[in-house]
Amino acid sequence: DRLIEAKDVVFECGPNCGCDPGCVNRTSQRGLRYRLEVFRTAKKGWAVRSWDFIPSGAPICEYTGVLGRADDVDSVLENNYIFEIDCLQTIKGLGVRERRSQNVAYAANLLDNYDGQDSEAPEFCIDAGSTGNIARFINHCCEPNLFVQCVLSTHHDLRLARVMLFAADNIPPLQ
Protein backbone atom coordinates (compact mmCIF):
# COMPACT_ATOMS: atom_id res chain seq x y z
CA ASP A 1 0.00 0.00 0.00
CA ARG A 2 3.08 2.23 -0.13
CA LEU A 3 5.70 3.17 -2.69
CA ILE A 4 9.14 3.01 -1.09
CA GLU A 5 11.03 4.79 -3.86
CA ALA A 6 10.15 6.74 -6.98
CA LYS A 7 9.77 4.67 -10.15
CA ASP A 8 9.87 5.85 -13.74
CA VAL A 9 6.19 5.07 -14.04
CA VAL A 10 3.73 3.07 -11.94
CA PHE A 11 1.07 0.98 -13.67
CA GLU A 12 -2.06 0.42 -11.57
CA CYS A 13 -5.20 -1.61 -12.15
CA GLY A 14 -7.87 0.37 -13.95
CA PRO A 15 -11.46 0.09 -15.18
CA ASN A 16 -10.57 -2.69 -17.63
CA CYS A 17 -9.18 -4.87 -14.87
CA GLY A 18 -11.46 -7.37 -13.15
CA CYS A 19 -10.28 -6.55 -9.62
CA ASP A 20 -12.31 -4.61 -7.06
CA PRO A 21 -11.59 -1.02 -5.90
CA GLY A 22 -9.81 -2.35 -2.80
CA CYS A 23 -7.09 -4.02 -4.90
CA VAL A 24 -3.56 -3.36 -3.60
CA ASN A 25 -2.63 -2.29 -7.12
CA ARG A 26 -4.90 0.78 -6.91
CA THR A 27 -2.92 2.62 -4.24
CA SER A 28 -3.20 6.11 -5.74
CA GLN A 29 -6.92 5.78 -6.58
CA ARG A 30 -8.26 5.73 -3.04
CA GLY A 31 -8.47 9.49 -2.48
CA LEU A 32 -7.19 11.47 0.48
CA ARG A 33 -6.35 9.37 3.51
CA TYR A 34 -4.80 12.03 5.70
CA ARG A 35 -6.21 15.20 7.18
CA LEU A 36 -4.45 17.96 5.25
CA GLU A 37 -4.74 21.65 6.04
CA VAL A 38 -4.00 24.68 3.86
CA PHE A 39 -2.58 27.46 6.03
CA ARG A 40 -0.87 30.83 5.63
CA THR A 41 2.83 31.01 6.47
CA ALA A 42 4.77 34.10 7.47
CA LYS A 43 7.23 33.95 4.55
CA LYS A 44 6.06 31.49 1.88
CA GLY A 45 2.38 32.34 1.47
CA TRP A 46 0.02 29.39 1.47
CA ALA A 47 1.27 25.94 2.45
CA VAL A 48 -0.03 22.48 3.37
CA ARG A 49 0.50 20.43 6.50
CA SER A 50 -0.93 17.19 7.79
CA TRP A 51 -2.67 16.72 11.10
CA ASP A 52 -1.73 13.04 10.94
CA PHE A 53 1.49 11.06 10.88
CA ILE A 54 2.21 10.04 7.27
CA PRO A 55 4.50 7.04 6.74
CA SER A 56 7.22 7.09 4.12
CA GLY A 57 5.92 5.91 0.74
CA ALA A 58 2.28 6.77 1.42
CA PRO A 59 0.32 8.40 -1.41
CA ILE A 60 -0.64 11.95 -0.45
CA CYS A 61 -2.66 13.34 -3.36
CA GLU A 62 -2.84 13.82 -7.09
CA TYR A 63 -1.80 17.13 -8.67
CA THR A 64 -4.92 18.24 -10.52
CA GLY A 65 -5.91 21.21 -12.64
CA VAL A 66 -6.64 22.00 -16.26
CA LEU A 67 -4.87 19.68 -18.68
CA GLY A 68 -3.40 21.52 -21.63
CA ARG A 69 -0.64 21.51 -24.19
CA ALA A 70 2.60 22.94 -22.87
CA ASP A 71 2.92 25.09 -26.03
CA ASP A 72 -0.38 26.80 -25.22
CA VAL A 73 0.71 28.00 -21.77
CA ASP A 74 1.26 31.74 -21.70
CA SER A 75 4.91 32.09 -20.68
CA VAL A 76 4.53 35.84 -20.13
CA LEU A 77 2.30 35.36 -17.12
CA GLU A 78 4.01 34.13 -13.96
CA ASN A 79 2.10 31.00 -13.05
CA ASN A 80 3.69 28.94 -10.29
CA TYR A 81 0.98 26.31 -10.62
CA ILE A 82 2.08 24.78 -13.95
CA PHE A 83 3.26 21.18 -13.69
CA GLU A 84 4.75 19.63 -16.82
CA ILE A 85 4.01 15.93 -17.36
CA ASP A 86 7.48 14.69 -18.27
CA CYS A 87 7.29 10.90 -17.91
CA LEU A 88 8.71 10.35 -21.40
CA GLN A 89 11.87 12.30 -20.57
CA THR A 90 12.27 10.38 -17.30
CA ILE A 91 12.08 7.00 -19.00
CA LYS A 92 14.42 8.09 -21.82
CA GLY A 93 17.05 8.70 -19.14
CA LEU A 94 17.03 5.01 -18.22
CA GLY A 95 19.77 4.05 -20.65
CA VAL A 96 22.53 4.01 -18.04
CA ARG A 97 20.43 2.80 -15.13
CA GLU A 98 19.66 -0.77 -14.22
CA ARG A 99 16.19 -1.97 -15.22
CA ARG A 100 15.05 -3.94 -12.20
CA SER A 101 11.38 -4.59 -12.86
CA GLN A 102 9.05 -5.69 -15.64
CA ASN A 103 7.13 -2.42 -15.31
CA VAL A 104 10.26 -0.44 -16.16
CA ALA A 105 11.01 -2.68 -19.13
CA TYR A 106 7.38 -2.35 -20.27
CA ALA A 107 7.54 1.44 -19.87
CA ALA A 108 10.71 1.53 -21.93
CA ASN A 109 8.95 -0.51 -24.64
CA LEU A 110 6.14 2.05 -24.68
CA LEU A 111 8.69 4.60 -25.85
CA ASP A 112 8.64 2.91 -29.25
CA ASN A 113 5.19 4.51 -29.72
CA TYR A 114 6.71 7.97 -29.26
CA ASP A 115 9.92 7.71 -31.32
CA GLY A 116 8.82 10.58 -33.54
CA GLN A 117 8.60 12.87 -30.54
CA ASP A 118 12.20 13.62 -29.65
CA SER A 119 11.34 17.01 -28.20
CA GLU A 120 13.04 17.88 -24.94
CA ALA A 121 9.94 19.71 -23.72
CA PRO A 122 6.93 17.80 -22.36
CA GLU A 123 3.90 17.96 -24.63
CA PHE A 124 1.28 18.34 -21.87
CA CYS A 125 1.04 20.15 -18.57
CA ILE A 126 -1.37 20.60 -15.69
CA ASP A 127 -2.35 24.20 -14.90
CA ALA A 128 -3.63 24.49 -11.33
CA GLY A 129 -3.58 28.31 -11.35
CA SER A 130 -7.34 28.80 -11.46
CA THR A 131 -8.62 25.35 -10.57
CA GLY A 132 -7.10 22.38 -8.80
CA ASN A 133 -6.91 20.73 -5.42
CA ILE A 134 -4.86 20.95 -2.24
CA ALA A 135 -1.70 19.86 -4.09
CA ARG A 136 -1.31 23.31 -5.66
CA PHE A 137 -0.61 24.78 -2.21
CA ILE A 138 2.27 22.41 -1.43
CA ASN A 139 5.46 24.46 -1.40
CA HIS A 140 8.78 23.61 -2.98
CA CYS A 141 11.52 22.84 -0.46
CA CYS A 142 15.28 22.37 -0.69
CA GLU A 143 14.89 19.21 1.41
CA PRO A 144 11.58 17.82 0.13
CA ASN A 145 9.55 15.31 2.12
CA LEU A 146 7.49 14.33 -0.96
CA PHE A 147 8.32 12.90 -4.37
CA VAL A 148 6.47 13.06 -7.67
CA GLN A 149 5.34 9.86 -9.35
CA CYS A 150 3.81 9.33 -12.81
CA VAL A 151 0.93 6.84 -12.57
CA LEU A 152 -1.05 5.12 -15.35
CA SER A 153 -4.29 3.24 -14.71
CA THR A 154 -6.99 4.01 -17.28
CA HIS A 155 -4.67 4.11 -20.32
CA HIS A 156 -0.98 3.68 -21.21
CA ASP A 157 -0.30 7.10 -22.75
CA LEU A 158 2.84 8.31 -20.96
CA ARG A 159 2.24 11.87 -22.15
CA LEU A 160 -0.96 12.01 -20.08
CA ALA A 161 0.08 10.21 -16.90
CA ARG A 162 -1.49 11.18 -13.60
CA VAL A 163 0.91 13.14 -11.39
CA MET A 164 0.87 11.82 -7.82
CA LEU A 165 2.69 13.04 -4.72
CA PHE A 166 4.05 10.43 -2.28
CA ALA A 167 5.77 10.81 1.10
CA ALA A 168 9.55 10.53 0.68
CA ASP A 169 10.08 10.29 4.45
CA ASN A 170 8.00 9.79 7.55
CA ILE A 171 6.12 13.06 8.02
CA PRO A 172 5.18 13.95 11.59
CA PRO A 173 1.91 15.77 12.34
CA LEU A 174 1.84 19.51 11.62
CA GLN A 175 4.84 19.43 9.32
TrEMBL record:
<dbReference type="GO" id="GO:0042054">
    <property type="term" value="F:histone methyltransferase activity"/>
</dbReference>
<dbReference type="InterPro" id="IPR051357">
    <property type="entry name" value="H3K9_HMTase_SUVAR3-9"/>
</dbReference>
<dbReference type="InterPro" id="IPR001214">
    <property type="entry name" value="SET_dom"/>
</dbReference>
<dbReference type="InterPro" id="IPR046341">
    <property type="entry name" value="SET_dom_sf"/>
</dbReference>
<feature type="domain" description="SET">
    <location>
        <begin position="34"/>
        <end position="175"/>
    </location>
</feature>
<keyword id="KW-0489">Methyltransferase</keyword>
<dbReference type="Pfam" id="PF00856">
    <property type="entry name" value="SET"/>
</dbReference>
<dbReference type="GO" id="GO:0003690">
    <property type="term" value="F:double-stranded DNA binding"/>
</dbReference>
<dbReference type="GO" id="GO:0032259">
    <property type="term" value="P:methylation"/>
</dbReference>
<protein>
    <submittedName>
        <fullName>Histone-lysine N-methyltransferase H3 lysine-9 specific SUVH4-like protein</fullName>
    </submittedName>
</protein>
<keyword id="KW-0808">Transferase</keyword>
